[in-house]
Amino acid sequence: MSQRPEHALEPTLAELLTHFARTTVPRRLYQLLQLGIPFAIDFGRVARATAGVLAAGISATLLIELFLRILGNAPIS
């Protein structure tokens, strides 16, 4: 068994970082998943609705422009 020197009773930076990486990352990952998945589902519903409204608006604008071009210019009275 290797013994640490008397002045090294506190953990080293490498030991602290290793402990932090092994314990905190999975816990935070699971917390983010618990919060992120419902947010992603809600954001996906909003994104689909926005894309649908945008597509319908562009189509309607193009149809109105086509109709007005077919009508042509009105004669000046």
Protein described:
The chain has a domain at 45-71. The protein is rod-shaped. The protein has one helix at 13-71. The protein is mostly helical and 77 residues long. It starts with 12 loop residues before the first helix and ends in a 6-residue tail after the last helix.
Any chance you could write out the topology, listing elements then pairs?
Elements: H1 13-71
Defining key terms:
77 residues, mainly alpha, 1 helix, 77% helix, rod-shaped
**Helix proportion of residues, in percent?**
over 70%
How far is it from the N-terminal to the C-terminal residue, by CA?
Answer: 107 Å
Low-pLDDT sequence parts: none
Mean pLDDT figure: 85
Largest sheet: none
Taken from the alpha-carbon principal axes, the silhouette is: rod-shaped
Strand content: under 5%
Number of helices: 1
Series of H and E elements:
H
Question: What structural class should be given to the helix and strand makeup?
Answer: mainly alpha
Number of strands: 0
Task: Describe this structure in a few short sentences.
This protein is an all-alpha fold and 77 residues long.
